[in-house]
C-alpha cells in the first residue's frame, strides 16, 4: 500500500533490523548463470531479520529462481519459488496500464479532470477535483492527501489492537477517499510530487465509470488473461491467499521490535486499486517484460507512461512506473510494493531483456534494493 521510492513498507511501521525472530534459515538452491551475488543478497536479508524471501530473475541466460529463509515460522517450511504473495503498490502499474489502454481506445483522456468522471468526490479542505487531471493521479502530482497517513486509519489498520479488530473490514473505495478529504491537500495540483495511495483508489473508480465494470475485472480481461498470468489475481474482499503461499508477518507496531504476528489473512479492500493485487515473481517478470516491450500499450501510451517527474532519492516517477538508476549506471523500471507482512520489488530494463521480482514475507526489515543492485550490477 504505502511506498517509499526505494522500498515499500507499511505506513506506521519503522524500518530496522531484527534478526532475533527468524527461524532456521533454509539455504537457497545453488546459483547458476552468474547469480551468486543475488543469492548472497537474499541470504543477507534473512540474516537481517526477514523470515523468508523468494526471487525470480530472467535474462539472456534464461530464468533463475531462489529462496532463503522460511515461509512459516511455526513449522519451518521453506519459501517456494512459486509462492503467491500480496504485491502492494505494484498493483499501481496494472491500474495505470488499464487507464492508458482506455485512452488509446478513445474512451477517456489523461487530461480529463477527476470531476469529469467522479463529480463531487474530490472536494473539501481545499481539494478540488475540477483542477486535478487523471495524469496527475497516475504520476502523483495531484497533491491529494494520502489516506493511509491519516492517524485514525493508521491506528485501526497498522497497529496491533486496531489491526486485529479491523483486519476483515470491507472498506469501500469512496470511504477511503472520504478519509483523505478530511485533510488539506499537500500542494496545488501539478505544483510538486508526493506519493499518495488515494490517487490510485480514484484511478480505480475512474476505470469503473469508464467501463461499467470493476477495475479488477478490467485488469483480468486486459492483462492477466492475455499474458496468461496464472498466479495473479485481484482478490477484492477475499481474505486468504491462494496456494502455494507462505505466511506473512508483521510487528504491528511503531517500531521494528517486539513480538511478531501472523498477518496473512486480511481484507485487501483497505488497499483497493492502490495495492490489493496478488501475484508471483514469475508473473511479475512476465508482466513488466511485456509492458516495456510494447505488448500491452501502443507506442504513444508507452511513451506517456515512461515520461517521468522527479520523485525522491534520485528516482523518477512515470505513470505507475518508477525509474531508478542503479549504482553501476544500469537503469531499471518497475515498482515496489508493501502491505501487511509483505514487501516486494519488481523491476526490468527498458528493453525488457532483464527482469527481477522478489518478495519478503515480513514488513519491518530487509533491503530489496541491495538484491536489485546485486542482480543487475554484478551478474
From TrEMBL:
Q: Which residues form the signal peptide?
A: 1-27
Q: Where is the Beta-lactamase-related domain?
A: 40-364
- EC number(s): the record gives 3.-.-.-
Has UniProt tagged this entry with the keyword Signal? yes
Q: Which UniProt keywords apply?
A: Hydrolase, Signal
Q: Specify the superkingdom.
A: Bacteria
| GO MF annotation list | hydrolase activity
What protein does this entry describe?
A: Beta-lactamase family protein
Q: What is the lineage of its organism?
A: Bacteria, Bacillati, Actinomycetota, Actinomycetes, Kitasatosporales
